[in-house]
Amino acid sequence: MAVAFQIDVAGTSPPALQSHWWTEFDQLGLATVTSGALAEVSGPSIEGISTLVLSFACWTAFWTGLFYALSATADRWMRGVPASTKAHENDKYWCARNLIGGIHATFVAMLTVPACIALLTAPSSSRFAHSRYLGSCPADPGMELDDVEGWSVVFQGVALAGLAFTSFTFADLGISLVHGLATADFIVHHIVFVSAGMIIRGWCVLPFNAAMLLAMEVSTPSLNYLVFFRHRGEAYESAVKKHGIVFVVLYIIFRLGVNSYGAVLLWIHRKDAVPGVIPEWQVWFLLSAVSAGVAVQIFWFPAIVRTFGSEMCGFTEDRPDPDRDELTQQSLGQRSCARQGEPSMGRDEELDLMEAKSPNTSVESEPAV
């Protein structure tokens, strides 16, 4: 039976205010509204929107504050680290962005890899569960689950990781624009995946697919390590090679294997994986984004194999690098200012540097939401 969504903004909000909030969220793709009124949809009432908004704002502020704190203290935590032979890799913003990216990826992976494993053999009722409380996405008491409390912990962990990822990507977009680190494709990439993250996290749906997508971040810390230390001397040669091996192995397992499985699973269950309240265009948007993400990972893989296959035979400082967009794209138009007296690399010089590398080694952020 079709009933109207009742949005409880703070638990005591009048209907007019609830409708206003829901209309505002519709502009972000998080609700279905007709002519500014509450839509008629099937299902129980939705709660926790104010908590979701506040949490997103706090997470965004946290990532932004952490980035600038790391940038301001770069001379301290970089003390004792040899300067890179690449000038832009000595930039305090580049270094801070590398470190915060590793922190973010580690946090997200710690939450989602166990959840991914737990949901791998779970029934469809758990894999495609959805929650009416948007604040933290717990399992609804009425869900047909074998262990409601246990699965609730899993769902909330994935939801927390999704919120951290979406807010991080949103903050990263703003930071990159402010400091001139973003290129056109970087901007489009981040907008697409912030939107995808808002849809999945905003509706509290697809915990298994979300866990699989976010679990791809498990390979990022190793990638960040080797990108940060590869041009800082032979002392790091062994560690860089080891992290390269770890990155490739995790890439195959999660970015190719798990990610592809998740995409196929979503296509197979596209008609029943999400509740009917979600607009059809949002479902197709997610299917397109996930499919494109798989295609990109497959496209990158040959270049990654060539790169690490060559470097396993010897440490070569100027070989092509499988950098992700947040690392390679930042090198275009970036200033070198972490070390006093170092000249800034001009844009033309940096373009020449990037063109000297393989054109297929600029690796963007995967569509983890």
Automatic annotation (TrEMBL):
Renumbered residue ranges of the record's region Disordered: 317-369
Comp. bias (Basic and acidic residues): 317-327
PANTHER family cross-referenced by the UniProt entry: CT120 PROTEIN, TOPOISOMERASE I DAMAGE AFFECTED PROTEIN 4
Biased composition range(s): Polar residues: 358-369
CC per GO annotation: endoplasmic reticulum; membrane
Single GO BP term: lipid homeostasis
Transmembrane segments: 49-70, 99-122, 150-170, 177-200, 206-227, 248-269, 281-302
Transmembrane helix among keywords: yes
Keywords: Membrane, Transmembrane, Transmembrane helix
Residues in TLC domain copies: 163-306
InterPro entries tied to this protein: TLC-dom, TLCD
Location(s), subcellular: Membrane
Membrane topology: Multi-pass membrane protein
Protein name listed in UniProt: TLC domain-containing protein
Major subcellular location class: membrane
